[in-house]
Every structure is written in structure tokens, then in C-alpha cells.
Amino acid sequence: MKPNDPHEDLPQMHHSQATLDLIDKMSPHLHFETVPPRRRFYYVDRGIHMCIVIRSGVIRVRRDTDEIVISSVPVPNIMGIGNLMPKSSGLFIETLSECEVATLTAADAQQLVGELNAWNLLAGHITKVANNLFVHSIIMTAPTAYEIIRFQLYELMREKPEIRETTSAAKYILQRTRLSRSTVMKILAQLKQGDFIELDDGMLKVINKLPKKY
Hints:
The chain is α+β, with helices and mostly antiparallel strands. It folds into two domains: 17-139, Sandwich (Jelly Rolls), CATH 2.60.120.10; 145-207. It is built from seven helices and eleven strands. It has helices at residues 17-26, 106-115, 119-140, 145-158, 161-164, 169-176, 181-193, and strands at 33-35, 40-42, 44-45, 48-56, 59-63, 69-73, 77-79, 91-95, 99-105, 197-200, 203-207. Strands 1, 3, 4, 7 and 9 form a five-stranded antiparallel beta sheet that branches. It is elongated, with a radius of gyration of 18 Å.
């Protein structure tokens, strides 16, 4: 990471080459279908742990109890293969664009991994997932509302145009946190007034430099 990287003090979600290599190995043995936006795929379906392989498109993870967005997820990706989610989690993957998706039970996915002798790739993938879950917990337990908002603004700037150009900064933050609307709007207004960010009709256009504390 470059010394002047504006995100250098933030916890970082990790991507893994192991995930991409595992998808490449598994794909010839999977049936992919093209699904429209707003389709839901649950990690646990009727008590059975599921594996969802997304080869293309834009997705996010949500929770059905309160519809909160847990995170955006890079694609290609494999979700649920490690059985890391409890059956009561209520987590699901939501497609935000047309996506190529293959589904199978987690048990069948693990059997396929064994047949392909790809346990080392699966280990690398699960290590990445576990690390990202830890990073997410750090983010959501930040000591101040500003620090949570700061991280979410940088995350919004990293999003694909399909999200960044159609979702206001306030909506993006409110979908992903339990902060009140008044708190989010107040801090965004102060950041805009101080020229730390540039908003156009609520859409985040530029982050000039966000202070660590505010």
C-alpha cells in the first residue's frame, strides 16, 4: 500500500486469488443460470446450508430480520461453502444486476472440492472470509458515529458505478448501519460544508480527504 493512500488507516476487506482459482476449477462442473436483479439466495434454505457461486454481476449481503445491508461483495465469489453462518442468521445474497449464479448444497460443494483435490484453494478462500468477518466487526463497533460514516464513505467510493451513481451517500450509510437519519445527515452536511466531500444531489462525487477524527 502506498504511504499516502487515504485508506491506509482503515481496516481493509481482503480479496483472494484462491477464491478466483477455486471458481475456475469448480465452474465446469456447475450449472450457471442468468438471474435478474432483486433475486434472493439464502445461505440456509429449509435448514440446509447452501453454496452460491456468483460468476458475474453485482451483489450484496443482507439480513432478513431488519433488511440491513451487511456488505457489498466483489464478484466473482463463492458464498456459503464453509458453513460459517449459523442457521438462524437469516442472511441472504441479493442480486443488484443481472448475475450468473450457480447453487448447490454446501455438502455437495465440499464433495466437489475433494474430487478436484482443491482443499488448499478452499482453505485460502475460507481464510479470506474469516478475515473479512473480523474486519466487518471492527468497523461496526467503531467508537464514534463519524468513524463509521467515514469508513462507509470510502466504501461507497470503491463501489461499482451501478451502485455509486444511483445511491445517495445518506441512503448507502443508513442501509448499512444503525445510525439515525438525523446523525447521518448532520455529519454529511458538515463534511460537505468543510469541503471534505463533494455531493451532487446527494450522490458522492469526490472525497477530498476525510480526517481520522471529527
